[in-house]
Amino acid sequence: MRSTQYGPDLTPPWKRQQPAPEVAAERELVVEEVVTGFCGAVVRCEKTAEGPTVTLEDRFGKHRVFPLVPRGFLLDGQLVTLVRPSGPAPARGPARTASGSVAVAGVRARVARESRIYVEGRHDAELVERVWGDDLRIEGVVVEYLEGIDDLPAIVAEFGPGPQRRLGVLVDHLLPGTKEHRIASAVTCEAVLVVGHPFIDVWQAVKPASVGIPGWPDVPYGEVWKEGICRRLGWPVDSPAAWKRILASVNSYKDLEPALLGRVEQLIDFVTEPGT
Description:
Layout (H helix, E strand, L loop, with lengths): L21 E3 L5 E4 L5 E10 L2 E7 L5 E5 L5 E3 L2 E6 L32 E4 L2 H18 L2 E4 L6 H8 L7 E5 L7 H9 L4 E5 L11 H4 L13 H9 L5 H10 L9 H14 L5
């Protein structure tokens, strides 16, 4: 006969895994992930195809994403199960675009202006679109890429800038004495504004902490820069895949260096100035 003294689970009580208390993963809650020991504040919770996740930010600004699994975190030294917060979201201020501007709901994109913004390459264009895309559509500004600026004088001449047809150009590594600086000086006029950032490539304009790296490594002159970056970071030497990884880490202007932010805002103001 089966004894009625025991339930179906015959595991001794002292060996049974006790359920961990559930704690809502509210923003700013500080927890430690049990496997990696990564400690940080909750930034956000998201529902993904693989299940719910939580993003933590440590004291250095580094972000890491973890699955919301049972008994997966420590809170004040106690094992807990983080769960997605329930209930209405707290009241917030006006919605913002990725660039930090106040989001304007229900407004259709403006018909494209004659004025344009040119950037050096496809990666530059994709980064500008990711952060300023909503603003540019409302303003009717089109961003195009040049694939380098060696032919910029001819491109500007073909564009035909004028008072109502302004051209703004963003250049990589625009430093005094460089080839880029000489070309920029040759085309700058009342209807053409050329600005630049000091980075070798727009990859460096993304903050290292947002990408999850301690810093952008130095690559010796003569080595292909993007391939050298991949090698030194221990990534596969695959520039398109590396850029996809970098771009995915950019959620807003906060992930970009001020040296790029200011220049893009300057160009947008230039091509949308009243009268253009």
